Amino acid sequence: MISPTNQRTRTLLVDDHPVFLDGLTSILKDCDEIEILNTVTSAEEALQYLENESLGLVITDINLPGMNGIELIKKIKEINPNLPVLVLSMFLGRELVKEILSVETEGYLSKKINKVELFDAVKKIIHGGTYYSNEITSVMMDLISKKKSGRTLLKHELTHREREILQLICQEYSSKEIASKLFISVTTVDSHRRSMFKKTGAKSVIRLIRYAVENNLVMW
Which of 22, 94, 96, 125 is 20 to 30 A from residue 2's alpha carbon, by CA? Predict the structure, then answer.
């Protein structure tokens, strides 16, 4: 258990419904790996808060007054490309999922999820992974598979170990979880990840996953 406050991931919650924010804050207090620094009800407040605080995670809704959640995520990624964002939303439509893919959000969950899945998502994301609920993943895979890449990556361009790791990345395993599963060090996993980024031209985990699906490099 992570007890010292300064070891927890500093987190900002964004939602325009104060009652939902209160409930989410209460639930996340039981997650010992994050610290809720503040809650805000608009994208503008969130960006203002980011100017003065160093954060490790932003959890936001998409349907916000004024600037919407998609625009907020774009701004966050401009300010700090390495700051992970988890979307919690009631909206799961194809067009919205497409927009979420375009801004490379680390996670996307329905507000109907249970506490266990929420904690699982948060922990995976803060440890360098991604997390999309099953209903979101199915829409994502459908969208990606219908937009095939113009170039097919030859299998010999990735090593056997890289393909193993790529499969696990697409299944939302973090580097730590992959290392444990394959009995290798986290450093080795990260080295393979860097190699795959270089070979595929991907700049983020989301783009790496998209590339893998477009080129039929993973099984679902």
Answer: 22
Parse the chain into domains and list their residue ranges: 5-143, 149-214
DSSP labels for 40-64?
ESSHHHHHHHHHH---SEEEE-S--
Q: Do domains 5-143 and 149-214 have the same CATH topology?
A: no
Q: What is the pLDDT of residue 100?
A: 79
Q: Which CATH number is 5-143's, of 3.30.1360.60, 3.40.50.10860, 3.90.1150.10, 3.40.50.2300?
A: 3.40.50.2300
Residue type, 3: S
Q: Which residues of the chain have pLDDT under 50?
A: 1-5, 155
Question: Exposed, middle or buried, 132 (CB in 10 Å: 0-12/13-18/19+)?
Answer: buried
Q: How far apart are the first and last CA of the chain?
A: 33
Residue 18 near residue 40 (C-beta atoms within 8 A)? no
pLDDT for res 92 = 74
Nearest to 136 by CA among 165, 105, 101, 97: 97
- Whether the Cβ atoms of residue 133 and residue 109 lie closer than 8 Å to each other: yes
Q: Model-level pTM greater than 0.70?
A: yes
Q: Looking at the structure, give the CATH architecture of the domain made up of residues 149-214.
A: Orthogonal Bundle (1.10)
pLDDT (tens digit, 9 = 90+) per residue, 11-70? 999 999 999 999 999 999 999 999 999 999 999 999 999 998 999 999 999 999 999 999
DSSP characters over 105-141 = -SEEEETT--HHHHHHHHHHHHTT--EE-HHHHHHHH
